[in-house]
Amino acid sequence: MSEVYTSNKPVKTGSRNMLYLYILLGVLVLALVFVLLRSLFKTRTVEAHLLRQEIYLNEPLVYTDNTNGAEKWVWEFGNGDRSLKQNGSYHFRRSGSYIVRLTIDDNLRQQFPVIVKDTVAVTTVSNIAINGVSRATVNEQVRLDAEGDANIFDWSFGETNRVDAHGRTAFYTYHTAGSYTVTLKADKSSEPVFHTIIVAPPFDGGVIVDPGAGAAQMSNDFRDHLQAIANGKDFNTHYGHLVRNYLCQEDQTTVQATDETGSKKTSFYSYCMGLTFGRNIVIDDVGLTVLPNKKCVSAVTVQQHKKI
């Protein structure tokens, strides 16, 4: 072992090296203790969330936590119920205001105010409607149209106790007189739509004009039945007569109606429905266009005015 003289006194170099080593070890121990203490007492942030804090009764309260290093969870829902899951959902049994509290690893806590409303908000489609006649005759084909935003339509006409037609437009022929409730179910409507049709016995009165007869006789007969509709007479009787005997059951035949306000083109069905809502309408003249080699009227022109 070598010696170093300081102030005329010998100092062993080996002892000095051991001193340096002890100091270095002490520093390393202190650093390790510091790191351990820092990891033990490191402040963690709770990373918990509720999907919604305002819900309706019977809707689930969805909760989740992503707190770093968490190992134990206690969710308390403010009514005595609790869950030990990290993530999940809970259904409240009563409406009201609640404080939901989460405890993580027995020492980290976070609270959430939650409002539970009385009833679940149900979105319904209220614009589904049935457009069509409310009166019909036995053995007469009835047409009804669905209006509204939907893709699937199922029709029950009330005579067979089953689904009788599908689609936005439905056709049906009643075989027995009576009052029937038509039920329409659509895929975007939470409730069915109803429509009442009164079916009368077969019509056997009046003079049926052969479409092969003179044009004047046909036009006069057509005009008389339109005037009867405008005057508030039985719609089904006069409408059915015209559709059966002139239009070959095609109630979408084009009608060009002209009055003092101008000219308007529409379907025969829509035109006749308009007559029922109008007042003091006088049918002056009717023109009929017949398809070549057929007995069906393909177009109708009407000149009318409103009686003052």
UniProtKB/TrEMBL annotation:
Domain PKD: 73-107, 148-186
Transmembrane segments: 20-41
Superkingdom classification of source: Bacteria
Record keywords, A-Z: Membrane, Transmembrane, Transmembrane helix
Listed InterPro entries: Ig-like_fold (IPR013783), PKD/Chitinase_dom (IPR022409), PKD_dom (IPR000601), PKD_dom_sf (IPR035986)
SMART domains from the UniProt entry: PKD (SM00089)
Gene3D superfamilies to which the protein is assigned, alphabetical: Immunoglobulins
Protein name per the record: PKD domain-containing protein
Organism: Deminuibacter soli
Taxonomic lineage from the root: Bacteria, Pseudomonadati, Bacteroidota, Chitinophagia, Chitinophagales
